[in-house]
Known about the structure:
7 strands, 7-stranded antiparallel sheet, 3 helices, alpha+beta
Amino acid sequence: MLLAYVADIKIRAAKGDTSPPVYNAYVVLTGSMVPEIMPKDVVVTKKREAKDLEVGDIITFLSSDPRLSNIIVTHRIKAKYYDATTNKYTFQTKGDANNTADFTLAEDTNIIGEVIFKIPKIGYIQSILATKGGLIIVVLIPCLAILSYDIVKLGKNVKNK
């Protein structure tokens, strides 16, 4: 799945298409959506038109709150508003575990997508990979093991001939 995602981005970039991908994945860092989505779960989102989103949908969006500048948030839609003069939608959102709704409305232009499914606890892998030690353990050691195996196998083949 990751390979298809990266290939899609690279192919579209080569064609000059810099629009956001249809599918994205994000690691949830906080407990604002507990019990539906736990910290370190990965949510996979699909880009949807704002007019197609409904109250109750869980969306991932770039926060408009000046206190949370450039923070990506995943919360549930509590209310949907349409402004006919600007032809724009805004959404009142709230984390399931939060006592109050979000301070600012989510603007339709900031919506990344609707959550279509979650992968529990896979965010821990991303946390490990983000460290140098984790990268060595997860990537370098398996590569060295495969290389060592191939060298031993090659040595046996040379020895038998």
